[in-house]
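Usage

Read records sequentially. Each one opens with the input sequence:
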Amino acid sequence: MSAQSVGSRDGHQAFRLHMVTWNVGTAEPPADVRSLLQLDSQPAADLFVIGLQEVNATPVQYISDLIYEDSWSHLLMDTLAPMGYIKVTSVRMQGLLLILFAKQVHLPFIRDIQSTYTRTGLFGYWGNKGGVSVRFSFYGHMLCFLNCHLAAHMNYALQRMDEFEYILDRQDFDPPQVLDHKLVFWFGDLNFRIADHGMHFLRSSVNNSRFNLLWDRDQLTMMKKKEPILQEFEEGPLCFKPTYKFDRFSETYDTSGKKRKPAWTDRILWRIKPKAIETVDENSSTSSSADDDEYPIKVMQDMYTCDVSYGVSDHKPVIATFDLEMRKKVKTPLVKLTVEGHWSADEDATFTYTILENFESSTWDWIGLYKIGFRSASHYSTFAWVKDDEVAANGEVVTVQMNKNELPLLAGDYVLGYYSTNMQTLIAFSPTFLILESRLAVMEGLLPENINGHEK
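and closes with the structure output:
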Protein backbone atom coordinates (compact mmCIF):
# COMPACT_ATOMS: atom_id res chain seq x y z
CA MET A 1 0.00 0.00 0.00
CA SER A 2 1.48 3.38 -0.97
CA ALA A 3 1.90 6.18 1.52
CA GLN A 4 -0.45 8.28 -0.58
CA SER A 5 -3.27 5.90 0.20
CA VAL A 6 -2.62 5.73 3.94
CA GLY A 7 -5.58 7.45 5.59
CA SER A 8 -5.11 9.48 8.72
CA ARG A 9 -7.07 11.48 11.24
CA ASP A 10 -9.49 14.25 10.22
CA GLY A 11 -8.99 13.70 6.51
CA HIS A 12 -5.22 14.00 6.71
CA GLN A 13 -3.07 11.76 4.53
CA ALA A 14 0.55 10.72 4.74
CA PHE A 15 2.74 11.16 1.67
CA ARG A 16 6.08 9.39 1.49
CA LEU A 17 9.10 11.52 0.55
CA HIS A 18 12.45 9.91 -0.34
CA MET A 19 15.44 12.28 -0.44
CA VAL A 20 19.06 11.73 -1.49
CA THR A 21 22.06 14.04 -1.32
CA TRP A 22 25.35 12.95 -2.84
CA ASN A 23 28.57 14.66 -3.82
CA VAL A 24 29.43 12.52 -6.83
CA GLY A 25 32.94 13.95 -7.33
CA THR A 26 32.59 14.41 -11.14
CA ALA A 27 32.22 10.61 -11.49
CA GLU A 28 29.95 8.84 -13.93
CA PRO A 29 27.00 7.14 -12.21
CA PRO A 30 27.16 3.52 -11.03
CA ALA A 31 25.37 0.83 -13.00
CA ASP A 32 22.51 0.52 -10.52
CA VAL A 33 20.86 2.99 -8.11
CA ARG A 34 17.92 0.85 -7.01
CA SER A 35 19.24 0.44 -3.46
CA LEU A 36 19.93 4.17 -3.28
CA LEU A 37 16.28 4.81 -4.11
CA GLN A 38 15.11 1.84 -2.00
CA LEU A 39 12.62 0.85 -4.67
CA ASP A 40 11.83 -2.46 -3.00
CA SER A 41 10.80 -0.88 0.31
CA GLN A 42 7.23 -0.39 1.48
CA PRO A 43 5.36 1.87 1.59
CA ALA A 44 6.48 3.13 -1.80
CA ALA A 45 7.57 6.75 -2.13
CA ASP A 46 5.21 9.37 -3.53
CA LEU A 47 7.98 11.91 -4.21
CA PHE A 48 11.70 11.54 -4.92
CA VAL A 49 13.95 14.56 -4.47
CA ILE A 50 17.58 13.98 -5.45
CA GLY A 51 20.28 16.60 -4.95
CA LEU A 52 23.74 16.02 -6.43
CA GLN A 53 26.91 18.06 -6.12
CA GLU A 54 30.01 18.02 -8.34
CA VAL A 55 28.25 16.56 -11.35
CA ASN A 56 30.82 16.64 -14.17
CA ALA A 57 30.71 20.30 -15.25
CA THR A 58 33.61 20.93 -17.61
CA PRO A 59 32.46 23.51 -20.18
CA VAL A 60 32.15 20.98 -23.01
CA GLN A 61 30.34 18.46 -20.79
CA TYR A 62 28.04 21.14 -19.34
CA ILE A 63 26.96 22.39 -22.77
CA SER A 64 26.36 18.80 -23.88
CA ASP A 65 24.26 18.13 -20.77
CA LEU A 66 22.10 21.19 -21.42
CA ILE A 67 21.18 19.71 -24.80
CA TYR A 68 20.95 15.99 -24.02
CA GLU A 69 20.60 15.88 -20.20
CA ASP A 70 23.35 14.51 -18.02
CA SER A 71 24.12 10.84 -17.42
CA TRP A 72 22.85 10.97 -13.82
CA SER A 73 19.45 12.28 -14.90
CA HIS A 74 19.25 9.60 -17.59
CA LEU A 75 20.00 6.81 -15.11
CA LEU A 76 17.49 8.13 -12.57
CA MET A 77 14.76 8.45 -15.22
CA ASP A 78 15.55 5.01 -16.65
CA THR A 79 15.28 3.53 -13.14
CA LEU A 80 12.18 5.36 -11.93
CA ALA A 81 10.03 5.57 -15.09
CA PRO A 82 9.24 1.82 -15.20
CA MET A 83 8.10 2.12 -11.58
CA GLY A 84 5.55 4.81 -12.51
CA TYR A 85 7.54 7.90 -11.49
CA ILE A 86 7.76 10.91 -13.78
CA LYS A 87 10.41 13.62 -13.77
CA VAL A 88 8.49 16.75 -12.82
CA THR A 89 11.31 19.28 -13.03
CA SER A 90 15.02 19.80 -12.49
CA VAL A 91 17.45 22.68 -12.04
CA ARG A 92 21.17 22.66 -12.84
CA MET A 93 23.93 25.11 -12.01
CA GLN A 94 27.24 23.70 -13.23
CA GLY A 95 28.00 20.89 -10.77
CA LEU A 96 24.81 21.30 -8.72
CA LEU A 97 21.75 19.32 -9.82
CA LEU A 98 18.32 18.99 -8.20
CA ILE A 99 15.64 16.68 -9.62
CA LEU A 100 12.02 16.11 -8.56
CA PHE A 101 10.13 12.91 -9.43
CA ALA A 102 6.52 12.10 -8.53
CA LYS A 103 3.98 9.36 -9.04
CA GLN A 104 1.76 10.17 -11.99
CA VAL A 105 -1.32 10.39 -9.74
CA HIS A 106 0.17 13.43 -7.97
CA LEU A 107 1.19 15.50 -11.00
CA PRO A 108 -2.18 17.29 -11.40
CA PHE A 109 -1.74 18.59 -7.85
CA ILE A 110 1.87 19.80 -8.22
CA ARG A 111 1.57 23.42 -9.33
CA ASP A 112 3.32 26.80 -9.22
CA ILE A 113 6.70 25.22 -9.97
CA GLN A 114 9.65 27.60 -9.92
CA SER A 115 13.39 27.02 -9.71
CA THR A 116 16.36 29.27 -9.16
CA TYR A 117 20.05 29.18 -8.31
CA THR A 118 22.68 31.27 -6.53
CA ARG A 119 26.43 31.17 -7.11
CA THR A 120 28.84 31.66 -4.21
CA GLY A 121 32.13 30.05 -5.35
CA LEU A 122 34.96 32.02 -6.99
CA PHE A 123 33.21 35.33 -6.35
CA GLY A 124 30.06 34.00 -7.98
CA TYR A 125 31.53 33.80 -11.47
CA TRP A 126 31.50 30.01 -11.74
CA GLY A 127 28.90 27.80 -10.14
CA ASN A 128 31.24 25.45 -8.30
CA LYS A 129 29.57 26.41 -5.01
CA GLY A 130 26.18 27.81 -4.15
CA GLY A 131 22.60 26.60 -4.09
CA VAL A 132 19.84 25.45 -6.45
CA SER A 133 16.22 25.23 -5.40
CA VAL A 134 12.80 24.11 -6.56
CA ARG A 135 9.55 25.29 -5.01
CA PHE A 136 6.04 24.08 -5.80
CA SER A 137 2.56 23.72 -4.42
CA PHE A 138 1.73 20.14 -3.39
CA TYR A 139 -2.02 19.71 -2.90
CA GLY A 140 -2.08 23.42 -2.02
CA HIS A 141 0.86 23.38 0.43
CA MET A 142 3.96 25.38 -0.53
CA LEU A 143 7.16 23.27 -0.35
CA CYS A 144 10.72 24.31 -1.15
CA PHE A 145 13.83 22.15 -1.61
CA LEU A 146 17.25 23.83 -1.44
CA ASN A 147 20.34 21.84 -2.50
CA CYS A 148 23.60 23.54 -1.44
CA HIS A 149 27.33 23.03 -1.86
CA LEU A 150 29.09 25.29 0.65
CA ALA A 151 32.71 26.29 1.21
CA ALA A 152 35.11 23.46 2.11
CA HIS A 153 37.83 23.05 4.79
CA MET A 154 37.81 22.95 8.58
CA ASN A 155 38.34 26.66 9.24
CA TYR A 156 35.51 28.00 7.09
CA ALA A 157 32.49 27.25 9.31
CA LEU A 158 31.57 30.94 9.57
CA GLN A 159 31.92 31.38 5.82
CA ARG A 160 29.55 28.46 5.32
CA MET A 161 26.98 30.25 7.48
CA ASP A 162 27.52 33.47 5.52
CA GLU A 163 27.01 31.59 2.25
CA PHE A 164 23.82 29.95 3.51
CA GLU A 165 22.38 33.30 4.58
CA TYR A 166 23.47 34.86 1.28
CA ILE A 167 21.70 32.09 -0.67
CA LEU A 168 18.53 32.53 1.40
CA ASP A 169 18.63 36.27 0.79
CA ARG A 170 19.22 36.01 -2.96
CA GLN A 171 16.73 33.27 -3.84
CA ASP A 172 13.61 35.23 -4.68
CA PHE A 173 10.54 33.48 -5.97
CA ASP A 174 7.28 34.97 -7.14
CA PRO A 175 6.37 36.15 -4.60
CA PRO A 176 8.04 34.56 -1.52
CA GLN A 177 11.59 33.82 -0.48
CA VAL A 178 12.77 30.38 0.65
CA LEU A 179 11.77 30.77 4.29
CA ASP A 180 8.27 31.96 3.38
CA HIS A 181 7.33 28.44 2.25
CA LYS A 182 5.35 26.27 4.63
CA LEU A 183 7.98 23.52 4.53
CA VAL A 184 11.64 23.85 3.50
CA PHE A 185 14.21 21.09 3.10
CA TRP A 186 17.83 22.26 3.19
CA PHE A 187 20.35 19.65 2.15
CA GLY A 188 23.53 18.98 0.21
CA ASP A 189 27.27 18.95 0.77
CA LEU A 190 27.16 21.57 3.52
CA ASN A 191 30.82 20.84 4.28
CA PHE A 192 30.63 21.24 8.07
CA ARG A 193 33.43 19.32 9.78
CA ILE A 194 34.15 17.70 13.15
CA ALA A 195 36.29 20.16 15.11
CA ASP A 196 39.00 19.64 17.76
CA HIS A 197 39.11 15.84 17.97
CA GLY A 198 42.32 14.15 16.83
CA MET A 199 42.37 11.61 14.05
CA HIS A 200 42.84 8.60 16.35
CA PHE A 201 39.88 9.45 18.60
CA LEU A 202 37.74 10.29 15.61
CA ARG A 203 38.38 7.08 13.73
CA SER A 204 38.15 4.97 16.89
CA SER A 205 34.71 6.46 17.66
CA VAL A 206 33.54 5.76 14.11
CA ASN A 207 34.93 2.22 14.00
CA ASN A 208 33.13 1.41 17.26
CA SER A 209 29.90 3.11 16.08
CA ARG A 210 30.08 5.52 19.00
CA PHE A 211 28.97 8.42 16.84
CA ASN A 212 27.43 10.27 19.80
CA LEU A 213 30.94 11.01 21.10
CA LEU A 214 31.45 13.27 18.07
CA TRP A 215 28.14 15.10 17.93
CA ASP A 216 29.03 17.96 20.26
CA ARG A 217 32.03 18.90 18.06
CA ASP A 218 30.14 18.71 14.78
CA GLN A 219 30.33 22.25 13.44
CA LEU A 220 26.72 22.40 12.25
CA THR A 221 25.46 21.16 15.61
CA MET A 222 27.64 23.75 17.33
CA MET A 223 26.39 26.49 15.01
CA LYS A 224 22.78 25.63 15.76
CA LYS A 225 23.32 26.65 19.38
CA LYS A 226 24.14 30.24 18.46
CA GLU A 227 22.56 30.92 15.06
CA PRO A 228 18.82 31.71 15.37
CA ILE A 229 18.12 30.83 11.72
CA LEU A 230 19.56 27.32 12.22
CA GLN A 231 17.51 26.76 15.36
CA GLU A 232 14.39 26.72 13.18
CA PHE A 233 15.74 23.72 11.25
CA GLU A 234 15.41 20.14 12.46
CA GLU A 235 17.67 17.20 11.75
CA GLY A 236 17.55 13.55 12.70
CA PRO A 237 20.34 12.02 14.81
CA LEU A 238 23.63 11.33 13.05
CA CYS A 239 23.57 7.57 13.70
CA PHE A 240 25.58 6.71 10.60
CA LYS A 241 29.21 6.91 9.55
CA PRO A 242 30.60 10.31 8.60
CA THR A 243 30.16 10.42 4.84
CA TYR A 244 33.45 12.11 3.91
CA LYS A 245 36.24 11.40 3.00
CA PHE A 246 36.59 7.85 1.64
CA ASP A 247 39.01 6.25 -0.76
CA ARG A 248 37.04 5.64 -3.91
CA PHE A 249 35.43 2.21 -4.29
CA SER A 250 36.09 1.37 -0.66
CA GLU A 251 34.74 1.80 2.85
CA THR A 252 38.14 3.03 4.06
CA TYR A 253 38.65 6.63 5.07
CA ASP A 254 41.29 8.73 3.30
CA THR A 255 44.64 6.93 3.10
CA SER A 256 46.31 9.62 0.95
CA GLY A 257 49.08 11.81 2.26
CA LYS A 258 46.49 14.44 3.24
CA LYS A 259 44.65 11.98 5.54
CA ARG A 260 41.59 14.21 5.82
CA LYS A 261 39.46 13.70 8.90
CA PRO A 262 36.07 12.02 8.49
CA ALA A 263 33.11 14.42 8.70
CA TRP A 264 29.34 14.58 8.28
CA THR A 265 29.57 16.98 5.37
CA ASP A 266 26.41 15.68 3.67
CA ARG A 267 23.20 16.56 5.48
CA ILE A 268 19.41 16.81 5.18
CA LEU A 269 17.49 19.24 7.41
CA TRP A 270 13.95 20.59 7.35
CA ARG A 271 11.98 23.55 8.68
CA ILE A 272 8.25 24.00 9.16
CA LYS A 273 7.37 27.67 8.93
CA PRO A 274 6.81 29.04 12.46
CA LYS A 275 3.28 30.17 13.16
CA ALA A 276 2.78 33.87 12.50
CA ILE A 277 2.34 36.18 15.45
CA GLU A 278 -1.10 37.71 15.48
CA THR A 279 -1.05 41.38 14.52
CA VAL A 280 -3.73 44.04 14.30
CA ASP A 281 -3.72 46.46 11.38
CA GLU A 282 -5.30 49.91 10.98
CA ASN A 283 -8.70 48.41 10.19
CA SER A 284 -8.58 46.28 13.35
CA SER A 285 -8.66 43.07 11.32
CA THR A 286 -6.52 40.26 12.66
CA SER A 287 -3.77 38.59 10.67
CA SER A 288 -3.00 35.18 12.13
CA SER A 289 -1.99 31.67 11.27
CA ALA A 290 -5.53 30.48 10.48
CA ASP A 291 -4.31 28.60 7.43
CA ASP A 292 -1.63 26.84 9.49
CA ASP A 293 -4.22 25.90 12.09
CA GLU A 294 -6.66 24.51 9.54
CA TYR A 295 -4.10 22.97 7.17
CA PRO A 296 -0.99 22.08 9.17
CA ILE A 297 1.82 19.87 7.90
CA LYS A 298 3.35 17.25 10.15
CA VAL A 299 6.79 15.92 9.22
CA MET A 300 7.94 12.57 10.57
CA GLN A 301 11.38 11.32 9.62
CA ASP A 302 11.42 7.57 9.13
CA MET A 303 15.06 7.09 8.09
CA TYR A 304 18.31 9.07 8.06
CA THR A 305 21.35 7.11 6.95
CA CYS A 306 24.10 6.75 4.38
CA ASP A 307 24.68 3.96 1.88
CA VAL A 308 28.34 2.94 2.14
CA SER A 309 28.03 0.45 -0.72
CA TYR A 310 28.45 3.18 -3.34
CA GLY A 311 32.04 4.05 -4.09
CA VAL A 312 32.25 6.13 -7.28
CA SER A 313 32.94 9.22 -5.15
CA ASP A 314 34.90 10.10 -2.02
CA HIS A 315 31.52 10.89 -0.41
CA LYS A 316 28.85 8.36 0.51
CA PRO A 317 25.27 9.25 -0.43
CA VAL A 318 22.91 10.25 2.38
CA ILE A 319 19.31 9.06 2.34
CA ALA A 320 16.34 10.38 4.31
CA THR A 321 12.73 9.28 4.16
CA PHE A 322 9.80 11.23 5.56
CA ASP A 323 6.07 10.95 6.00
CA LEU A 324 4.43 14.30 5.26
CA GLU A 325 1.05 14.30 6.94
CA MET A 326 -1.34 16.91 5.60
CA ARG A 327 -4.91 17.61 4.58
CA LYS A 328 -5.36 18.32 0.89
CA LYS A 329 -6.28 21.92 0.13
CA VAL A 330 -6.64 21.05 -3.58
CA LYS A 331 -8.59 17.93 -4.51
CA THR A 332 -9.64 18.27 -8.16
CA PRO A 333 -7.53 18.65 -11.32
CA LEU A 334 -7.78 21.77 -13.46
CA VAL A 335 -8.68 19.92 -16.67
CA LYS A 336 -10.67 16.80 -17.57
CA LEU A 337 -9.45 14.67 -20.52
CA THR A 338 -11.76 12.09 -22.10
CA VAL A 339 -10.81 9.56 -24.79
CA GLU A 340 -13.51 8.92 -27.39
CA GLY A 341 -13.99 5.50 -29.03
CA HIS A 342 -11.31 2.94 -29.87
CA TRP A 343 -7.84 4.13 -30.91
CA SER A 344 -5.54 2.63 -33.50
CA ALA A 345 -3.35 3.91 -36.31
CA ASP A 346 -6.02 2.81 -38.81
CA GLU A 347 -8.12 5.93 -38.30
CA ASP A 348 -7.97 9.41 -36.82
CA ALA A 349 -8.56 9.50 -33.07
CA THR A 350 -10.77 11.86 -31.06
CA PHE A 351 -10.65 13.14 -27.50
CA THR A 352 -12.16 16.01 -25.55
CA TYR A 353 -10.89 18.28 -22.83
CA THR A 354 -12.80 20.48 -20.42
CA ILE A 355 -11.41 23.29 -18.27
CA LEU A 356 -12.77 22.56 -14.78
CA GLU A 357 -11.24 25.50 -12.96
CA ASN A 358 -9.85 28.82 -14.11
CA PHE A 359 -6.08 28.91 -14.46
CA GLU A 360 -3.58 30.81 -16.57
CA SER A 361 -4.04 28.70 -19.68
CA SER A 362 -2.38 29.51 -22.98
CA THR A 363 -2.80 28.74 -26.68
CA TRP A 364 0.73 27.27 -26.35
CA ASP A 365 -0.62 24.53 -24.07
CA TRP A 366 -0.63 21.07 -25.61
CA ILE A 367 -1.91 17.57 -24.98
CA GLY A 368 0.53 14.71 -25.34
CA LEU A 369 0.01 11.00 -25.91
CA TYR A 370 2.16 9.09 -23.40
CA LYS A 371 2.91 5.39 -23.24
CA ILE A 372 2.69 4.09 -19.66
CA GLY A 373 6.22 4.13 -18.26
CA PHE A 374 7.07 7.51 -19.80
CA ARG A 375 9.91 9.50 -18.23
CA SER A 376 8.93 13.18 -18.40
CA ALA A 377 6.55 15.65 -20.05
CA SER A 378 8.72 15.74 -23.18
CA HIS A 379 8.65 11.95 -23.56
CA TYR A 380 5.45 11.83 -25.64
CA SER A 381 4.61 9.69 -28.67
CA THR A 382 2.77 12.56 -30.36
CA PHE A 383 0.87 15.66 -29.30
CA ALA A 384 -1.87 18.09 -30.32
CA TRP A 385 -2.13 21.79 -29.57
CA VAL A 386 -5.08 22.93 -27.50
CA LYS A 387 -7.74 25.11 -29.10
CA ASP A 388 -5.58 27.43 -31.16
CA ASP A 389 -7.80 30.43 -31.82
CA GLU A 390 -8.62 31.31 -28.23
CA VAL A 391 -8.30 29.96 -24.72
CA ALA A 392 -11.15 27.60 -23.88
CA ALA A 393 -13.83 28.86 -21.54
CA ASN A 394 -14.45 27.31 -18.18
CA GLY A 395 -16.72 24.27 -18.57
CA GLU A 396 -16.51 24.27 -22.38
CA VAL A 397 -16.05 20.82 -23.93
CA VAL A 398 -13.41 21.06 -26.67
CA THR A 399 -13.01 18.27 -29.21
CA VAL A 400 -9.55 17.52 -30.65
CA GLN A 401 -8.46 15.06 -33.32
CA MET A 402 -5.13 13.28 -33.64
CA ASN A 403 -4.00 12.22 -37.10
CA LYS A 404 -3.85 8.44 -37.56
CA ASN A 405 -0.41 8.78 -39.15
CA GLU A 406 0.92 10.06 -35.82
CA LEU A 407 -0.40 7.18 -33.72
CA PRO A 408 1.69 4.16 -32.63
CA LEU A 409 1.35 1.03 -34.76
CA LEU A 410 1.74 -1.47 -31.91
CA ALA A 411 -0.76 -2.05 -29.13
CA GLY A 412 0.00 -0.54 -25.74
CA ASP A 413 -1.40 1.26 -22.69
CA TYR A 414 -1.41 5.05 -22.94
CA VAL A 415 -2.66 8.20 -21.27
CA LEU A 416 -3.29 11.71 -22.55
CA GLY A 417 -1.60 14.46 -20.56
CA TYR A 418 -2.41 18.19 -20.62
CA TYR A 419 0.79 20.28 -20.46
CA SER A 420 0.49 23.84 -19.15
CA THR A 421 3.13 26.12 -20.67
CA ASN A 422 2.73 28.69 -17.92
CA MET A 423 2.96 26.13 -15.14
CA GLN A 424 5.72 24.17 -16.92
CA THR A 425 4.17 20.84 -15.98
CA LEU A 426 1.53 18.24 -16.79
CA ILE A 427 -1.63 19.26 -14.94
CA ALA A 428 -4.13 16.57 -15.99
CA PHE A 429 -4.32 13.03 -17.32
CA SER A 430 -6.98 10.92 -18.97
CA PRO A 431 -7.69 7.46 -17.59
CA THR A 432 -5.34 4.82 -19.00
CA PHE A 433 -6.58 3.38 -22.29
CA LEU A 434 -5.49 0.78 -24.83
CA ILE A 435 -4.31 1.67 -28.32
CA LEU A 436 -4.98 -1.32 -30.58
CA GLU A 437 -2.45 -2.74 -33.00
CA SER A 438 -2.87 -1.36 -36.51
CA ARG A 439 -4.62 -3.95 -38.70
CA LEU A 440 -3.51 -2.23 -41.91
CA ALA A 441 0.14 -2.14 -40.81
CA VAL A 442 0.03 -5.87 -40.04
CA MET A 443 -1.59 -6.69 -43.39
CA GLU A 444 0.92 -4.65 -45.37
CA GLY A 445 3.92 -5.87 -43.37
CA LEU A 446 4.86 -2.38 -42.22
CA LEU A 447 5.78 -3.31 -38.64
CA PRO A 448 9.55 -3.32 -38.06
CA GLU A 449 10.81 -6.13 -35.86
CA ASN A 450 12.28 -3.92 -33.15
CA ILE A 451 9.53 -1.33 -32.90
CA ASN A 452 9.19 -0.09 -29.32
CA GLY A 453 5.73 1.41 -29.41
CA HIS A 454 6.98 5.00 -29.28
CA GLU A 455 7.74 5.21 -32.98
CA LYS A 456 5.74 4.48 -36.09
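Summary fields computed downstream for this record:
- The first helix runs from residue 34 to 37.
- The CA atoms of residues 367 and 384 lie 5 Å apart.
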